[in-house]
Amino acid sequence: MGRTRIEETTMAKYLLLKHYRGAPAPVNDVPMDKWAPEEVTAHIAYMNDFAARLEGTGEYVDSQALAPEGTFVRYDGPGRPPVTDGPFPETKDLIAGWMIIDVESYERALALAGELSAAPGAGGRPIHEWLELRPFYGVTSPATAE
Amino acid sequence: MNVRELTPAVIAVLVRRGADFAAAEDAVQDALLEAVRTWPDGPPRDPKGWLVAVAWRRFLDAVRADTSRRRREDLVEAEPPRVPGSAVDDTLQLYFLCAHPSLSPASAVALTLRAVGGLTTRQIARAYLVPEATMAQRISRAKRTVADARFDRPGDLGTVLRVLYLVFNEGYSGDVDLSAEAIRLTRELAARTDDEEVAGLLALMLLHHARRAARTGPGGELIPLAEQDRGRWDTRMIAEGVGLLQAALARDRQGEFQVQAAIAALHADAPTVEETDWVQIVEWYDELDSPVARLNRAVAVGEADGPRAGLAALAELDPSLPRYPAVAAYLHERDGDLARAARLYAEAARTALTIPERNHLLRQAARLNAGDHPASG
Predict the structure, then answer these.
(1) Fewer CB within 10 A of the terminal residue: chain A, N end or C end?
(2) Is residue B115 domain-resident?
């Protein structure tokens, strides 16, 4: 009765999302400007090395960092300028940046997110930061799924 | 000789033969790609003639594929017309066209890099971190914008210089060294013009480029001027920049780029940071009135007359200026108010414009918060 699972596609893209606010507090929760300078340097080196290693394995797609302050904007009707609002200091969810990876399995995505979360922070110890792992929708359906 | 250096001259030949600029530029880009493909096996004896021949053929092919029958008859049937050489330098005209005042700075930069610099759309896209299709659209829209611009009268040298300055400031990303490319294009421009500000810009670029190796550490971190290993500055490049600047200043028609170059030259001239002639640097800053220059002036005043004087100069400026908190942090640290400086560095990190700057400022905040006072390199 065993059923062989046939993979429909070879690779899947995932977003590793990092938050300024909105994620549960990390284990090693010290703001970066309170670290020792060499700890800041070590953290940056870890992040760069991580991205370079994923480029090497052919799994890296993109990473970007966002400035902390933004504005909400919406359409306000014909002939009127858009309405802006914010920034809202009480906003619960504030995205700091992301990395996009293209990997063979969900398990691989989890493992990589775990590694990224182990980036060193205060005292040189891992931050254990909570990262949000979100799968991308595919943009084409498998040809066999007609 | 790099094949790209022939780009503007070959475009100009096609335009003189009657091709419109947009089509000529496309045809030459095709010819350049073919040159990159085939020349390694056997470079032609006359590279420019080869490019002109291939580009003209490409242009005619494109016209044939075009629906315009009349143009086809006009151009294909005729021998390449011999247009008498015009009095104006064709390459110079291309600089003007690509930096035409009707173009946005981003469009002018992209068009200049392609039509004057001979870079491919892919290279330009990678350097500016946008998809190739986006850059291709930016370039073709720019070409449509300047389609009706006259090709036979001098343009605005000021906009050309600003475009080259923007290219220079992009630095190095993708597989193209945009700073080096900006220097090459400015050098070409300087050879074709007799203008103090062109010389001033070239001097400014050389004086900054000379410090590039010393400006970043092994992990890509920024190293501020005061902490740079001056032994790693390129003295030959500095000498060339200083020579160009002195000749320009001697003509007594000062401009913004000459003034900026003079400031860079004073830094280059100091064997150690302590020997910097800050008094003269402040005097040069007095000649500039951009917000960035006035922020830098506050730093220089702080060095010349002490941090209190620097803070007083800063107090006259708009606190919402980019990098204001970073300058305030620096001056308060010099003034001994370390807690305030640490807070300001952290604020400056939050509002930094680039990741290397943010990381640098975070490290400064961390250094003060850790009680590690002397600035460490």
Answers:
(1) N
(2) yes
Paired tokens of B9: 């001259």
Q: How far is A113 from chain B (nearest CA, A)?
A: 22
Chain A CB contacts of B218 under 8 Å are none
Residue A7 has a pLDDT of 57
Is the predicted pLDDT of residue B360 greater than 50, yes or no? yes
- Mean pLDDT for all residues in chain B: 90
**Predicted confidence (pLDDT) at residue B349 exceeds the cutoff of 90:** yes
Mutate to test the interface with B, among A33, A40, A50 (most CBs of B within 10 A): A33
Which chain A residues have a beta carbon less than 8 Å from that of B370?
A: 35-37
Tens digit of pLDDT for each residue in B303-312? Answer: 999 999 999 9
How far, rounded to the nearest angstrom, does the alpha carbon of residue B203 sit from its chain's CA centroid? 12
Residue A12 has pLDDT above 70, yes or no: yes
Rounded to 5, what percent of chain A is helix, strand, coil?
A: 30, 25, 45
Q: Is the pLDDT of residue B375 over 60?
A: no
Q: How many domains does chain B have?
A: 3
Minimal Cβ distance to B366: which of A33, A65, A67: A33
Burial of A146 (0-12, 13-18, 19+ CB in 10 A): exposed
B155: containing domain: 87-130+146-193
Triad B299, B301, B307: Cα angle to 5°: 75
Do B21 and B62 reside in the same domain of the chain?
A: yes
Q: Which of A36, A41, A65 sits opposite B370 (nearest CB)?
A: A36
Distance in angstroms (rounded) separating the CA atoms of residues B112 and B129: 17
Residue among B219, B352, B370 minimizing CB distance to A45:
B219
Q: Tell which wins on pLDDT, B230 or B84.
A: B230
The verdict on residue B8 lying in a domain is yes
Nearest to A44 among B219, B351, B365 (CB): B219
Same domain for B114 and B65? Answer: no
| Vertex B14: Cα angle to B10 and B18 (nearest 5) | 165
Q: Is B323 on the interface with A (CB under 8 A)?
A: no
Residue A69 touches chain B, beta carbons under 8 Å: yes
Q: Please say if the pLDDT value at position B140 is more than 80.
A: yes
Please give the pLDDT value at position B344. 97
**What is the model's pLDDT at position B135?**
94
Mean pLDDT, rounded, for B78-95: 65
Asked if B109 and B167 sit in the same domain, the reply is yes
- Is B344 in CB contact (< 8 Å) with chain A? no
Q: How close is the nearest chain B Cα to the Cα of A33, in Å?
A: 5
Min Cα–Cα distance to chain A from B340, Å:
13
Percent of chain B with pLDDT over 90: 73
B189 and B115 share a domain? Answer: yes
Position B377 pLDDT exceeds 50: no
**Of the partner residues B346, B351, B355, the one whose CB lies closest to the CB of residue A33:** B346
Question: CA distances (Å), B171 to each of B28, B47, B150, B176, B215, in order?
Answer: 26, 30, 32, 9, 12
Asked if B299 contacts B310 with a C-beta cutoff of 8 angstroms, the reply is yes
